[in-house]
Design a protein that fits this description.
This protein has 217 residues and is an alpha+beta fold. The protein has six helices and ten strands, in the order αββββαβαβαββαβαβ.
């Protein structure tokens, strides 16, 4: 499955430190439109004949919740249902990145989540991201993060290999873990998390990631 696992880790891949803060946006205020969207999606999940009806499901560690999973055009949609309350808690979309070439596109996705206010800070998005990482998917952060999203990524970085990359010319350029503030503020600088089974070396080979350190990035 991973043909580059045996490749020796290059020197520029070594060394791990605590994640630094990327661009943080103020979290949006609760919006009634999200509750309406979630209500509509929940009805569709249980409406025979709808394309969301009968999706494959996966349980979360908390048996109160279940994930309904759909793939479309290479992107994954994960709808988290509260079985006890019979409502949708929220959803996560694992988006393709238009900024990368086909080599990286085969392995990385950028997750974006929307969860109702009453279900935030309950670890649901963390559980969904963790499920994707355990399945071997590698994640790249978006251009901006809410405070909650940044905290989620930092939590996952304690359990998964991670680092910073620059999206440059449709390729990933590895920047390491410790970055100066001005570099972290660049919109094309992102954080990545490696899924289960990947090493930094095998990931670098598969996506043709180059060493972007020391070249004035």
């Amino acid at each position: 499955m991973l043909p580059f696992v045996g490749w020796r880790l290059p020197a520029w891949c070594r060394g791990w430190h605590r994640p630094q803060e990327l661009r943080i946006d103020v979290g949006p205020a609760p919006d009634d439109s999200l509750d309406q969207e979630l209500d509509t999606l929940h009805r569709r999940l249980h409406r025979p004949g709808d394309r969301l009806f009968g999706l494959p499901t996966h349980p979360l560690r908390d048996p109160q919740f279940v994930m309904h999973c759909r793939e479309a055009d290479g992107e994954w949609y994960v709808y988290v249902e509260d079985l006890a309350a019979r409502r949708l808690a929220g959803y996560t979309v694992f988006n393709r990145l238009v900024e990368v070439d086909r080599h990286a596109d085969a392995h990385v996705r950028a997750p974006h989540s929307k969860y109702a206010a009453t279900y935030q800070r309950r670890g649901l998005a963390t559980a969904v991201y963790g499920w994707a990482l355990e399945a071997g998917l590698c994640l790249v952060s978006g251009a901006r993060q809410s405070p909650g999203a940044h905290a989620l990524w930092c939590a996952l970085a304690r359990r998964h290999a991670w680092g910073h990359v620059e999206l440059r010319g449709k390729r990933l350029a590895y920047l390491g873990r410790e970055l100066p503030a001005h570099q972290r503020e660049a919109l094309n600088v992102r954080m990545f998390l490696l899924g289960k089974g990947w090493t930094l070396a095998s990931f670098a080979a598969a996506v043709r990631m180059r060493d972007g350190r020391g070249d004035g990035a």
